[in-house]
Amino acid sequence: MRVVRVQKRSYGGIVVHALLDPERTFCGRKPAELDVVEELELDKLPALEGCNGCRRALDGWTPPARIAPAELRIVAPPAPGRLRTTGSLSHGTRVKRGGRRLA
């Protein structure tokens, strides 16, 4: 596979892009607009320097494994006899937590 090593403009790092054809990389960028350092022939993209967009296009992308909500925590029902204490802050004419008097 033909790849190009590119000098990044932001902080001077190196990124390796895989070429789809001489006019375009797998992530959709044009090599003419990039600061190409060298062209190489590699079997696969390097783990640290490889472009994430090119790697997704070559290897395919699968969503990360999801953890079912039941595995994260178990929500128990409220204990019997407990009053619900949450509610509107300005309900009624009495001043409650941070509410203002309406009358």
Beta-strand percentage range: 15-25%
* Class derived from helix and strand content: alpha+beta
What average pLDDT do the residues reach? 78
Strand numbers in spatial order across the main sheet? 3-2-1-4
Report the count of strand segments.
Answer: 4
> Which shape, going by the Cα principal axes?
elongated
Could you tell me how far the N terminus lies from the C terminus, measured between alpha carbons in angstroms? 77 Å
Provide the succession of SSEs: EEEEHH
* Helical content class: 10-25%
Number of helices: 2
Q: What integer value in Å does the Rg equal?
A: 29 Å
Main pleated-sheet profile? 4 strands, antiparallel
Contiguous uncertain segments of 5+ residues: none
Oligomer: single chain
TL;DR of this structure?
By secondary structure, this protein is an alpha+beta fold. It has a domain at 2-59.
What does this structure look like?
The protein has a domain at 2-59. Helix content is 12%, strand content 21%. The chain has 103 residues and is α+β, with helices and mostly antiparallel strands. The longest helix is centred in the middle third of the chain and has 8 residues, at 52-59. Strands 3-2-1-4 form a four-stranded antiparallel beta sheet, with no helix packed on it. The chain has helices at 52-59, 69-72; strands spanning 2-7, 14-21, 24-25, 36-41.
List keywords for this structure.
103 residues; alpha+beta; 4-stranded antiparallel β-sheet; 2 helices; 21% strand; elongated
List the helices and strands and how they pair.
Layout: E1 2-7, E2 14-21, E3 24-25, E4 36-41, H1 52-59, H2 69-72
Antiparallel strand pairs: 1-2, 1-4, 2-3
